[in-house]
Amino acid sequence: MRLDLIPLISEPREDLATEYKTWLDFGQERDKATLAKACIALANHGSGFIVLGFDEDGDSLNSVARPTAIAEITQDAINSIVRRYADPPFHCQLNLVPHPETSVVHPIISVPSDQSVPVISKRTYHGTIQQHRCYVRKPGPVSEEPKTAEEWRTLFRRCAQANSEEMLSAIRSIVMGRAETEVPESSSIQEFEDFRKASLERWRTITNDLDPEAPERFPSGYYEMSIQPVDATPADDIAVLKQHLSQAQRIKLTGWPPFLEMEREGWRPYPFNDHIEAWIGRRIDDYTPREPLLSDYWRASQNGQLYTIRGYTEDSFENQRWVRPGSVVDVTLPVWRVGEILYFVTRFLEAFGDTRVVLVNCRFTGLSGRTITSLNSRRRTSSRPCHSDEVETAANVTPQQLQENVVEVVHQLLSPIYAAFDFYTLSRTLVEEELRSLRENRF
Question: What pLDDT, in 10s, does the model give residues 409-420?
Answer without folding.
Answer: 999 999 999 999
